[in-house]
Amino acid sequence: MASARPSSIGIGAVVLLVGAIGFLPLFDGPGYESALAAGLVVPSAAAITTALETSKSRPAPFDAFAEGLARGAKLAAVAWLVTMLHGLRAGFCDPLAGSVLFALGPGAGALLAGAWGAVAGEIAGRVARRRLVAVLVALAAPLGSVVVSLVRFYTSPMVFAYDPFVGYFSGSLYDTVIDASGLHAYRVGSAATLLAGAVLASHLARTDEGKLSLRVIRRPSAVVLGALAAAASLGATFFGHHLGHWHTPATIAATLGGRVESERCDVVYPRGMPREDALRFAEDCSAHVLAQEAWLETKGPPKITAYLFADPAQKGALMGAADTYIAKPWRNEVYVQQNGYPHPVLGHEIAHVMAGSFGRGPFRIAGSFGGLLPNPGLIEGIAVATSPHEGALSAREWAKAMKDLGKLPRLSRLFALGFLGENSSVAYTASGAFVGFVKERYGAAAVRAWYGGGELSAITGASWDELERAFHEDLDRVVLPEAAAAQARARFERPGIFGRRCPHVVDACRKRAEEQRARGDDEGVIEALREALTLDPGESGARVAIARALVRMGKPDAGKAELQAIADEPRFPRHVRDRALEELGDLALAEGDHERAIVHYREVMSRTVEEDQLRTLDVKLGAAEDTRGKDAIVALLVGTKGRGPDKVRAAEELGAWATSAPDDGLPDYLLARQYMGSGDFAEAARRLDRSLARRLGIPRVAAEAERLRLVAACALEDPETAKRMATAYVTRADVPRARREAAASLYARCTGAPAPAVPGATPTGDALP
């Protein structure tokens, strides 16, 4: 009975800990989070119980090794059963895939830990304080492997980790589609390790004095097999960068292959990217640094290294976080994928590095305990405030919309770990609005001091309650367009990841649907999206995509009926119903029912504030009202004969339209957009000049033509045209102020000249007494 006690305690600890963790959101059933949590618990329990048992009983080496494997397997099975019970309680997402991940993660890890526990037991059995040494040595390997992962995280761009005991850690909270396929190759190495260990244990014996000695079993094939297994294990470890299990700055740079530099930035970029594009990116990177030094009133690092990946897949393979942009302030590095010029998120990531110049601790961030406990609201808030996202509304205006909808989080939640439980749009925007408020009221020095560990109430002389009241009063002075409420609901009502049902599986279904759509497999699209809806009936946007697929499959009546049902269903979010209305408008436009198309487009426009969407609706509305360019616009934006948009046909139609209507600037503008998207700025500039010299009857298109010409001028290093376009654009009363400010900022970055004044500033008030 006494000899069974450590095993019984181990089983009880696993049941208790894994069972308790299973009541947390996302951990309630077999899946990525539960496997990760079990990987931190089960292998340690297996190693400790095996070490305690074998250090006392002192079995033969091979028997100890086998006992370790058996205990590891037993504890892993117990943990898996507990997660399955939670799945029965809360509902399963994908029990088969979750169970496979569990087996490859903590399951295999528990076997390795049990084997290591036998080694720990052998060591502990030789010393006086047997139980203490058994526990410490048993924990040394699981904890040591975590330390290795942390060292790699700190000393390289990596954010993911393959761990022999835990399994796979993806590294990013906001990447909901988890690709753990690399575990298969990783566990081949683990199997080789166990095989080598088994062969070694079979060649060991215990003498009468209790010591280990080599024994000959006269099976040369076993020795060869063990040697090959050991070689495979070592090869998988030391050449893991070839298998995608780990990377260093050198291996990533070698894979990408290109490098350029500017005054303040070194850029590592993929060889397939044109060098001139990389140089343009590098110059914009330097300009962001200079602009943010002015905003923060401090000096940043002499050089920032930007890793620029070809696409999310390459970024995910080399450093992790495929769909999430990342910065490491302590390394003065940012990691982004190509996304046109100017890069929409580069400034945000650089802001994290800039803030590191006055951040705390080894990670140079805002947080408690010397920056070891992060303050995500302040970390992200300063980046949003320093480098605002270009859009129809500023962070302050969106925060006003949140307040009106009752969605604005309390500051006490926002600037703590509660930030992570919010919808990311809510959390980032609200924190950015408040940091911007503090900067306007109390200056950049106050923001720096707060980020550097100072207590904000002491810095400002106002309590948190007073600051929150003043912030709300400031927001009350903001006047929003009527459509902002509908857009805000669409933007902020979606729950955060911890509030969603099966987010990993649902988003994987949506990704699979996108891949099937690219292959032209609309039946596969519908199958994937219906699977997502089965798991999360609230994923109502998938219904619109299903209706689109029905139309593409040659079932327009079924597609229209589905879209109309969505538009008429009051239970669905307003923005989803509006997407259905716009789709109905597109179908009506393609079929020649112009009156119906006009009605649908105008209704959607009445609840829209985003300029890009409004401009697209304007263009489609124009095609319904004046059919001269209808065929080109339908081909470009809608699609015909059950197919999606056709850029080749659209280019032909646009060329014909431009020839037949030489006074109309719209076809050249639409062609220019295509050239901008492909990076041909010279041809885009030529088309835009022709467009602006002609009639542009849609005001939003005329404004956008000026903005795009500014971008092209910056890309082509044409400061005179950039100044002319920026001056014209920032004075447009029909363009939201946030977009005009973004254009002024771009002009300043690309020319080095002062940004033109943007009329229409909204005061934020005076500092509190």
UniProtKB/TrEMBL annotation:
Classification via InterPro entries: TPR-like_helical_dom_sf
Gene3D superfamilies the UniProt entry points to: Tetratricopeptide repeat domain
Keywords recorded for this protein, A-Z: Membrane, Transmembrane, Transmembrane helix
Transmembrane segments: 7-26, 98-120, 132-154, 183-201, 222-243
Pfam families noted in UniProt: TPR_19 (PF14559)
Protein name: Tetratricopeptide repeat protein
Lineage: Bacteria, Pseudomonadati, Myxococcota, Polyangia, Polyangiales
